[in-house]
């Protein structure tokens, strides 16, 4: 596993989120090397790690890719927040005791996040 420039291990899914943020803000699709250079210009992030992560994001339908010479270029199909929401949904889908998981999740929210969640639950879902 790679480590961020500040040291220590990345949290699970953190590199995916960082890559999605880079792709989401890019003005054009990027090669894995360009993504790596934007994430960690010092070269501490392995090229193969970026390629593997981009391939997994492609397989999840989060990024598009097209061949450009010998390399692929990648572009975001969804925002980084969408990737996190999808990850949460997948985790919930395999948990038989969803009520307990949700109860514990809400119990660990900050007061501001709990208030935001309550507001979101009151919104009309057809308003999107």
Secondary structure elements and their pairing?
Layout: H1 14-25, H2 32-39, H3 47-59, E1 63-68, E2 71-76, H4 80-93, H5 98-107, H6 111-122
Helix pairs in contact: 1-4, 2-3
Describe this structure as you would to a colleague.
This protein is mainly alpha-helical. It folds into two domains: 14-76, Orthogonal Bundle (Arc Repressor Mutant, subunit A), CATH 1.10.10.10; 80-122. It has six helices and two strands; from the N terminus they run αααββααα. The chain has a two-stranded antiparallel sheet. A hairpin with a 2-residue loop joins strand 1 (63-68) and strand 2. Helix 1 (14-25) runs antiparallel to helix 4 (80-93) and helix 2 crosses helix 3 (47-59). The longest helix is centred in the last third of the chain and has 14 residues, at 80-93. It is elongated.
Distinctive features:
6 helices, single chain, 128 residues, Arc Repressor Mutant, subunit A, 2 domains, elongated, two-stranded antiparallel ribbon, mainly alpha, WH_DNA-bd_sf, BlaI_family, 9% strand
Please estimate the helix content: 40-55%
Summarize model confidence as the mean pLDDT: 87
Strand content: 5-15%
Order of SSEs, N→C?
Answer: HHHEEHHH
Under the CATH scheme, the architecture of the largest domain is Orthogonal Bundle
CATH topology of the largest domain: Arc Repressor Mutant, subunit A
User: What name goes with the CATH superfamily of the largest domain?
Assistant: Winged helix-like DNA-binding domain superfamily/Winged helix DNA-binding domain
Q: Give the end-to-end Cα distance, rounded to a whole number of Å.
A: 38 Å
Oligomeric status:
single chain
Low-confidence stretches: none
Protein name: Putative transcriptional regulator
Organism: Paractinoplanes abujensis
Keywords: DNA-binding, Transcription, Transcription regulation
Family: Belongs to the BlaI transcriptional regulatory family.
């Amino acid at each position: 596993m790679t480590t961020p420039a500040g040291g220590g291990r990345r949290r699970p899914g953190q590199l995916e989120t960082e890559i999605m943020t880079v792709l989401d803000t890019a003005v054009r699709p990027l090669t894995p090397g360009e993504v790596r250079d934007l994430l960690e210009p010092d070269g501490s992030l392995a090229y193969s790690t970026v390629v593997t992560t981009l391939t997994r994001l492609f397989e999840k339908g989060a990024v598009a890719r097209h061949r450009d010479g010998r390399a692929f270029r990648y572009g975001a199909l969804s925002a980084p927040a969408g990737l996190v929401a999808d990850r949460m949904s997948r985790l919930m889908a395999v948990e038989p005791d969803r009520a307990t998981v949700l109860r514990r999740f809400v119990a660990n929210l900050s007061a501001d996040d709990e208030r935001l969640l309550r507001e979101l639950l009151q919104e009309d879902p057809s308003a999107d």
